[in-house]
């Protein structure tokens, strides 16, 4: 019964809206309002709450308004921002195409109701001839933003369109003529138009985050975008460090030009941390990274990249591979931006032996479905857990990625083709630490424990910054199946990684692989 019915006040059409809201609540939860029941999705909850507001002035004023909101809930909610085409006589301007898209992605990702493909997902289209709608279908999104930038005499002409992938319809298009120092002003207008055209409900806090300026210094912004572009070109095989060094140089210029540019400090801290971890050792660079992150946080405590970078450093050789502290930082980053860090959390959970990694990885793939890096790591994480059949099943759509073939090769004493495969990888990527980790995981999955110990010290010494992927997981998995061999691996680990000495204690295996504690031999074994 509506409040006006209960109080004997006059009723009108809005009373029927109240009744409809109550019925909708019952359909969704099985209970009357205020009686509990199943949780309602946030977007539906807003509709129900508005319909059953005690104040008729705050309800839908007619059924048409409510129907519009219900229909909008079914409208497209996934979007990709493609790199802008750049038409300029100066080739050095090309970075602006991806830079513009990346900045729009950063801002539009702050709208909770949109699933936005990350900038890394669309980088492949920079300079490519693929048609926008085809790129949208490849990214499995409902909407794409495309644009072009043409340099004129002292100004840029920027054309932007919002397209519906299903039928190619244009939902919005506009042109801007902007001075050299104004081209980034249009990002706010693009985000505003997307929200307006999709009739998204943006709260005051979201609006504050969307409108917060980054820098008013055009030269600093250009350095920031060049640095971001260089870092997006980093070598996935961790051989060529030049893109990271170039990114650090540009980002350092950005913060020199504008010391209050919080986003540039945050990106600089992240890139420095990444560079030191994967191409280290470099303790001074880690110290500089932490200084940059502290500065970024002092300027803008709402930047998710800061705790994300700290989590990366916590789980590194520089901070003793503090996995729990790393997870706490990742969760803090997620509270600031719910759309990020699914892969990072999946990776941490997978290395801990926690099955929650599967859900996080699947969410990462849903947000970036065309990312082979994610799908390939899902394959490897299944191997980490000894689930070879599941690994192979999920890998069928990767077109026999060469690194995955190295995982599946039987080993150095396998057939000639397998030996050539492994040797070819070693020859092409001599500094890549993933190979020893891959080999040990594969050997464990296949029960080849008799061949584990002889190469184990050599594998660990060649693993570089990722030896943590070998040194608790390998002995834990081995101990669970073969206690004698497992003890040998445990006792041999400490000198190989002084920062990982806690792994010589039995209790360390419990958070790493809980099933180890269930082994009949576990409680009766001395690892010292």
Provide a brief overview of the structure:
By secondary structure, this protein is of the alpha/beta class. Helices cover 53% and strands 7% of the residues. It folds into 4 domains: 70 residues, Orthogonal Bundle (Transferase(Phosphotransferase), domain 1), CATH 1.10.510; 134 residues, TolB, N-terminal domain (Rossmann fold, 3-Layer(aba) Sandwich); 122 residues, Serine Threonine Protein Phosphatase 5, Tetratricopeptide repeat, CATH 1.25.40; 119 residues.
Write the layout of secondary structure elements.
Elements: H1 3-7, H2 13-29, H3 42-51, H4 63-72, E1 78-81, E2 85-87, H5 95-108, E3 115-116, H6 119-122, H7 132-138, E4 143-151, E5 155-164, E6 170-179, H8 186-197, H9 204-211, H10 218-232, H11 242-257, H12 262-279, H13 283-299, H14 305-314, H15 323-336, H16 342-352, H17 356-367, H18 372-384, H19 388-394, H20 402-408, H21 416-428, H22 434-445, H23 456-461, H24 473-481, H25 483-493, H26 509-512
Parallel strand pairs: 1-3, 1-4, 2-4
Antiparallel strand pairs: 4-5, 5-6
Helix pairs in contact: 2-3, 5-8, 5-10, 10-11, 11-12, 12-13, 12-14, 13-14, 14-15, 15-16, 16-17, 16-18, 17-18, 18-19, 24-25
Which class best fits the helix and strand makeup? alpha/beta
- CATH homologous superfamily (4th level) name of the largest domain: TolB, N-terminal domain
Question: Approximately what portion of the residues adopt beta-strand conformation?
Answer: 5-15%
**How many beta-strand runs?**
6
Our Rg estimate from Cα atoms comes to 27 Å
Distance between the termini: 72 Å
Name of the CATH architecture of the largest domain: 3-Layer(aba) Sandwich
Low-confidence stretches: 408-414, 463-528
Share in helix: 40-55%
Our count of domains comes out at 4
CATH classification class of the largest domain: Alpha Beta
**Looking at the chains present, what oligomeric state does this protein adopt?**
single chain
Quick one: biggest sheet?
A: 6 strands, mixed
Spatial shape:
globular
């Amino acid at each position: 019964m509506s409040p006006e019915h209960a109080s004997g006040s006059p009723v009108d059409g809005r009373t029927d809206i109240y009744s409809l809201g109550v019925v909708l609540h019952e359909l969704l939860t099985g209970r009357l309002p205020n009686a509990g029941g199943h949780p309602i999705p946030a977007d539906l909850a807003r509709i129900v709450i508005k319909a059953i507001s005690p104040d008729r002035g705050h309800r839908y004023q007619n059924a048409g308004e409510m129907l519009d909101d219900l229909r909008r809930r079914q409208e497209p909610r996934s979007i990709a921002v493609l790199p802008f085409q750049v038409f300029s006589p100066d080739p050095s301007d090309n970075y602006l195409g991806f830079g513009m898209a990346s900045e729009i992605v950063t801002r539009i990702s702050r709208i909770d109701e949109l699933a936005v493909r990350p900038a890394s997902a669309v980088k492949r289209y920079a300079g490519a001839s693929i048609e926008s709608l085809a790129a949208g279908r490849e990214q499995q999104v409902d909407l794409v933003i495309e644009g072009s930038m043409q340099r004129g005499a002292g100004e840029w002409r920027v054309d932007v369109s919002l397209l519906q992938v299903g039928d190619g319809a244009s939902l919005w298009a506009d042109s801007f003529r902007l001075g050299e120092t104004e081209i980034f002003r249009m990002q706010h207008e693009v985000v505003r138009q997307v929200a307006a055209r999709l009739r998204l409900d943006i709260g005051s806090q979201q609006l504050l985050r969307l409108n917060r300026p980054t820098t008013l210094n055009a030269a600093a912004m250009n350095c920031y975008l060049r640095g971001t572009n260089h870092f997006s070109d980093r070598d996935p095989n961790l051989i060529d460090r030049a893109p990271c060094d170039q990114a650090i140089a540009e980002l350092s210029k950005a913060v020199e030009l504008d010391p209050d540019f919080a986003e540039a400090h945050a990106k600089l801290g992240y890139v420095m941390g990444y560079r030191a971890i994967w191409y280290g050792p470099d303790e001074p660079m880690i110290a500089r990274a932490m200084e940059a992150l502290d500065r970024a946080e002092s300027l803008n405590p709402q930047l998710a990249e800061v705790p994300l970078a700290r989590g990366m450093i916590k789980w590194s050789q520089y901070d003793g591979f503090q996995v729990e502290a790393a997870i706490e930082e990742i969760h803090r980053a997620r509270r600031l931006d719910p759309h990020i860090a699914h892969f990072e959390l999946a990776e941490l959970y997978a290395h801990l032996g926690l099955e929650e990694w599967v859900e996080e990885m699947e969410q990462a793939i849903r947000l970036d479905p065309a990312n082979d890096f994610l799908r390939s790591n899902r394959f490897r994480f299944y191997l980490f857990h000894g689930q070879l059949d599941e690994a192979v099943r999920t890998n069928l759509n990767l077109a026999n990625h060469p690194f995955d073939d190295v995982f599946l090769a039987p080993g150095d004493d396998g057939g000639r083709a397998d030996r050539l495969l492994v040797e070819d990888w070693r020859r092409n990527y001599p500094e890549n630490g993933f190979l020893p980790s891959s080999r040990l995981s594969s050997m464990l999955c296949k029960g080849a424990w008799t061949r584990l110990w002889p190469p184990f010290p050599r594998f660990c010494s060649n693993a570089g910054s990722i030896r943590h992927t070998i040194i608790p997981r390998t002995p834990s998995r081995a101990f669970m199946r073969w206690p004698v061999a497992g003890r040998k691996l445990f006792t041999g680990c400490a000198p190989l990684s002084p920062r990982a000495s806690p792994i010589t204690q039995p209790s360390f295996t419990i958070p790493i692989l809980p099933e180890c504690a269930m082994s009949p031999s576990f409680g009766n074994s001395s690892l010292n």
